Amino acid sequence: MTTTDTTADEVARIVADAVAEVNRTLPPQHRLTGDPGQRLLGAGGGLDSLGLVSLLSAIESRVAARLGVEVSLMDERAMEREPGPYGSLGDVTAYLRELLAEAART
Nearest to residue 40, comparing CAs of 92, 96, 91, 88? Predict the structure, then answer.
C-alpha cells in the first residue's frame, strides 16, 4: 500500500492500535481513552514523557509495517512547532496525516 492509498480510517486504526499497545503498559488510571480530544501530557494527560515516546514509537513502527513508509513524529520539526503536535491524540493523528501526505508527494 502506498501513502496515496492511505485513508483516514487506516490512520485512525494505526493510532488506535498503538494506543492499545501503550495502554497495556499503563496503570488503569493513566490509560488513554482513544478519544481525539484526549490530552497526552500535562494537566489531564495520562502519559509522562517516556509514555509519549512509547506511543509515538509504536505509531511510527505501525506506519512502517502497514504502509511501508518511514515517518518521524519526534524530529526537530515537530519539536519546533507552535503549538506542538503532542497536545492531544487528535493533534498527533493530524500531524501523522500531514507527514503521510508529504511522503505521498515525494
Answer: 88
